[in-house]
Design a protein that fits this description.
Layout lengths: L3 E6 L3 E2 L4 E2 L3 H16 L2 E8 L3 E6 L2 E7 L6 H15 L5 E4 L12 E6 L14 H21 L5 E4 L2 H10 L7 E3 L19 E6 L8 H14 L3 E6 L5 H7 L6 E4 L6 H4 L5 E4 L9 H8 L3 E5 L15 E3 L3 H13 L1 H18 L2 H15 L3
Parallel strand pairs: 1-4, 1-7, 4-6, 7-8, 8-9, 9-10, 11-12, 11-14, 12-13, 14-15, 15-16
Antiparallel strand pairs: 2-3, 5-6
Helix pairs in contact: 1-11, 5-9, 8-10
């Protein structure tokens, strides 16, 4: 493996836990490593770290930690990653930015950036003046200038949804970047038709536990629905800044349990779940959590945010709602009380995941991308 793929990212390996972090970008990189191995190239991941380190993580995979602990500026941190890349790379190598926002420099090597979905669509939960809203339009316009500038620094942009591509078209007069959409994916297990031995219904939230992922929206809706039904098992899977908030809210409720999991266990934790909820309030691509729930034969409820609108047809393979407590409560009420609808949505969700969002489909697309980049 003389040719090498360099991946620049903010966080992949957790130094403290000595394991891979949980998150969509980490899942993406983890699976790209398999593609790189298939193509026949080795990989070096260059990431933020609390101290400099080099870790030979697996055969053909090296993780290089760059100490940015005393640096507050994100742009300076990203430039440090790029500087380390220059110390190692040759012109024959390929540079991959794990997100387009890291692509501050134009490389002499062939370069690719991954765009994981629009991240600047999170609405404030507080009322504001008309003037404040207008100021926000100007602020986001300036951000758009930066974002379109970054992607000029790479040879190809891989977007995970059409939401971003359509946004980009609204921002430019003439296309300056080559953008290809490769939606995210899921492994497809055998169809698991859950055999019910009682009347209980299991509801799962499996995300990183932070507000923009919908933790508080989910918590309020679950609190409402638990008042009405006593046959529910609610599982909150993950970790993050809202973990203590959620545990405090449901401390005395025996119907709610908390678990932690590794990214490789995502399908396993969905195995006995009836309803999976992905209540993101902003910053979402073609959600791994949503696709994994669909592949696990769950009835899914998601919000009409980002790339999830490329996946769900409301009423056919899931229920799509506005990010509101009232709408989520109503959707949960429907699925908890109507087993036939749950099974109809779950069956269609599985079929759509298998036909349009399988890992094999995604892998074939990326094999072509890397073979072209390395001239293989």
């Amino acid at each position: 493996m003389s040719k090498k793929l360099y991946i620049l990212c903010q966080r992949y390996y957790d130094e403290d836990k000595r394991n891979i972090s949980i998150g969509g970008i980490q899942t993406y990189i983890l699976n790209l490593l398999d593609v790189a191995k298939y193509v026949g190239v080795s990989v070096s991941i260059i990431q933020y770290a609390k101290s400099n380190f080099i870790l030979d993580y697996a055969d053909g995979i090296r993780i290089i930690g760059v100490d940015v602990s005393k640096t507050k500026s994100v742009s300076i941190k990203n430039r440090r990653l790029y500087k380390v890349f220059l110390e190692y790379a040759t012109i024959e190598d390929v540079l991959l930015y794990a997100t387009e926002a890291i692509a501050l420099q134009k490389s002499k090597c062939y370069s690719i950036a991954i765009q994981h979905g629009i991240s600047w669509d999170i609405e404030s939960q507080e009322q504001c003046s008309r003037f404040s809203n207008i100021c926000n339009i100007f602020r986001k316009s300036l951000e758009a200038i930066l974002l379109t500038y970054y992607i000029k620094n790479v040879d190809k942009v891989i977007a995970v949804d059409y939401n971003y591509l359509n946004w980009y078209r609204t921002q430019i007069k003439h296309k300056e970047a080559e953008i290809k959409v490769i939606p995210n994916f899921t492994k497809i297990p055998a169809k698991n038709k859950k055999i019910k031995i009682d009347e209980s219904v299991t509801i799962l939230f499996a995300r990183r536990l932070q507000p923009y992922r919908g933790t508080r929206l989910f918590a309020e809706a679950i609190r409402n629905i638990l008042i009405k039904y006593d046959n529910l098992n609610v599982v909150i899977a993950g970790e993050g800044p809202d973990e203590e908030y959620l545990k405090a809210m449901f401390a005395d409720n025996a119907h709610v349990t908390f678990i932690k999991y590794h990214v490789s266990e995502s399908l396993e934790i969905h195995k006995d779940v009836d309803i999976a909820v992905i209540p993101t309030v902003g910053s979402e691509g073609t959600s791994f959590s949503l696709l994994e729930a669909m592949a696990s034969y769950c009835a899914v409820i998601c919000t009409n945010v980002g790339g999830m609108t490329n996946i769900i047809i409301n009423g056919y393979n899931g229920i799509m709602i506005n990010p509101s407590v009232k709408e989520l409560t109503n959707a949960l009420d429907l699925l908890v009380s109507d087993e036939a609808t749950r099974l109809y949505l779950a069956n269609n969700a599985y079929d759509v995941a298998k036909k349009s969002f399988s890992y094999d489909r995604w892998k074939d697309s990326w094999i072509s991308i890397l073979q072209n980049a390395f001239n293989i």
